[in-house]
Amino acid sequence: MQPYDDQTGKEIIAWTVGATIGYGHLIKRTEWDTYRDGITVSAASILFEQDLSPFVNAVRSNIKVKLKPQQFDALVMLAFNIGAGASGFSGSSVVKLVNDPEVETNYKNLEAAWKAWSKSQGKVMKGLENRRACEWNVYSQGIYKKW
């Protein structure tokens, strides 16, 4: 597996903001020499497990209602992509609405709150819209399909 630009999905040969390897590991500048020549599928899987752990924990600690397995999976995917902290998942209207569908937010429903996470650097990105739609399909219907 080769490094790629997270925004475009195209392989890269030099570090850039958004440099990614494997299943979504953002490469820090200091890690570039480790990943510049790519990694095996096995190494990508190990890296993914390590990267995923804080987001699994974020869902477990922030969601107070019983979830179906696909709902848990989709929430982990969302947290992984938007960050686990207060400016991301844990402070989101998504968490508030999952825990209490009647809570007042700036969104008409959970789907709208979920799909609002479609901007990067202040601009709506088609790739993020696709990702949010994919996650929503997992959450709401249990449909696991790549975006």
Structure notes:
With 147 residues, the chain is mostly helical. It folds into two domains: 1-39, no CATH class; 51-141, Lysozyme (Orthogonal Bundle). It is built from six helices and five strands; from the N terminus they run βββαααααββα. It has helices at residues 32-35, 41-62, 69-82, 93-99, 110-115, 126-141; strands at residues 4-5, 19-21, 25-26, 119-120, 123-124. The strands form two sheets. A three-stranded antiparallel beta sheet has the order 1-2-3. A two-stranded antiparallel sheet has the order 4-5. Strand 2 and strand 3 (25-26) form a beta hairpin. Helix 2 (41-62) crosses helix 3 (69-82) and helix 3 runs antiparallel to helix 6 (126-141). The radius of gyration is 16 Å and the shape is globular. The model has no long low-confidence stretch (mean pLDDT 95).
- The overall pLDDT, averaged over residues, is 95
- Main sheet: strands, sense, barrel: 3 strands, antiparallel
Shape annotation: globular
Order of helices and strands: EEEHHHHHEEH
State the end-to-end CA separation.
19 Å
Evaluate the radius of gyration.
16 Å
What's the arrangement of strands in the largest beta sheet?
1-2-3
Q: Tell me, what is the CATH class of the largest domain? A: Mainly Alpha
Whole-number count of domains: 2
pLDDT < 50 runs, ≥5 residues? none
Structural class: mainly alpha
